[in-house]
Amino acid sequence: MHLDHSHHGPSAVSADAHRPDGTRRALRIGLGGPVGSGKTATVAALCRALREELSLAVVTNDIYTREDAEFLLREAVLPPERISAVETGACPHTAIRDDISANLEAVEDLEDEVGPLDLILVESGGDNLTATFSKGLVDAQIFVIDVAGGDDIPRKGGPGVSTADLLVVNKTDLAPYVGSDLARMAADAKAQRGELPVVLQSLRSEEGVRDVADWVRARLAAWTA
Amino acid sequence: MSRAALLVLADGRFPAGGHAHSGGAEAAVKAGRITDAASLEEFCRGRLHTGAAMTAALAAAAALGVDPTGLDRAADARTPSPALRVAARKLGRQLMRAARATWPHPELDALAQRFPKGAHQPVVLGLTARAAGLGPEDAAYCSAYEGVSGPATAVVRLLGLDPFDATAVLARLAPELDRVAQDAVDAARRAMTDGVDALPARSAPLLEIGAEVHAGWPVRLFAS
């Protein structure tokens, strides 16, 4: 990160911790993971949990539509001006890792238009187990998998599972119905990730997104410290 | 001139946002105008001699040092479709970010300040070439090549076209691309003395119409 960088005019480099006017920019957290694992549902739940205490916005990266953005709008988790959709040309991982320019514009425009913001959630389009975010785009990333996608995914590993700052194993309520072994998933994840945290969650349970929201709060406290 | 700097700028992986745009190919595929390598070649040939010839001249003029604000206005005047003007400015803004991080230069800073939401992409491309120590030929080649390589790559994704066939299309267009780039540089040199009206104003009505239709689709893979 270029924490001591300064630029004339609009910022040129993405990871700068400060905006052109010298104020601290929002913390950016990426959410990636396979199609259907519950990224959008997690984003919606995080918005509901955090919107009273934080100023936040969301960038979605749909594969071929504005579906995810429209889901969030329909659920009314945030006012529409706080949700922005990026088009990814059939390559969601390119837009979050190899060529992050459209996403950077989206986060900067949100800060300009509805800021000041504390937090921006950047949701990737559903992709494969190797899709991770560039450090030039996000400060921390959450990888979301689910029990119905197969309980061997943590064992298979891959950059998302093994290196994300937080691994979420979603839809634990479905485990008995799809024959997934939660204890085995947790043990495999631990073996892949060492000390990096793992949350097993069901958004249908009373706790819902609580653990993930607490993790986000901790990251934000560290960012603003 | 550094030949290596040209390779950096012309690299399809240069992170300037182009991967999300099909150059009109998605609309043409949906309309049944591109179905295979032969029709891709005709599409690219049309694009090369219209839109790409114009953007190559704008880029060459910017690389020569023609006033970028005037060039940006000239680009607006040569782009009837509002959707294409939006796409060109979006891509210009994205290229500007990559260019300023790659080849910092006061002229890039000044253009970014003048157009915070983006100048037309070929204008930014020309100034980027200048910042990289490249000349008008290089800028013209990059712009003309992008004009055909973007659709070719997109059609590989859209139709599952054999990538070898798509690349062979680009190779077959190379001699024509040489002539388009040379004409663009000649026009840009005239613009140095005669003003931006000396730049070509060729447009492809079907590309403009296709872009407007495409912008209204609820479901699409590419941004333009």
Q: Could you explain how this protein is built, in words?
A:
The complex is a heterodimer of chains A (225) and B (224). Chain A contains nine helices and seven strands; from the N terminus they run βαβαβααββααβααβα. Chain A has helices at 39-50, 67-74, 92-98, 101-114, 153-156, 159-163, 175-178, 182-193, 210-224; strands spanning 27-32, 56-62, 83-87, 119-123, 140-146, 166-170, 198-200. In chain A, 36% of the residues lie in helices and 17% in strands. Chain A is globular, with a radius of gyration of 17 Å. Chain A has a single domain (27-224), classed as 3-Layer(aba) Sandwich (Rossmann fold). In chain B, helix 9 packs antiparallel against helix 10 (163-194). Chain B has a single domain (20-215), classed as Urease accessory protein UreF. Chain B is mainly α and 224 residues long. Chains A and B meet through helix 3 and helix 4 of A and helix 6, helix 7 and helix 9 of B.
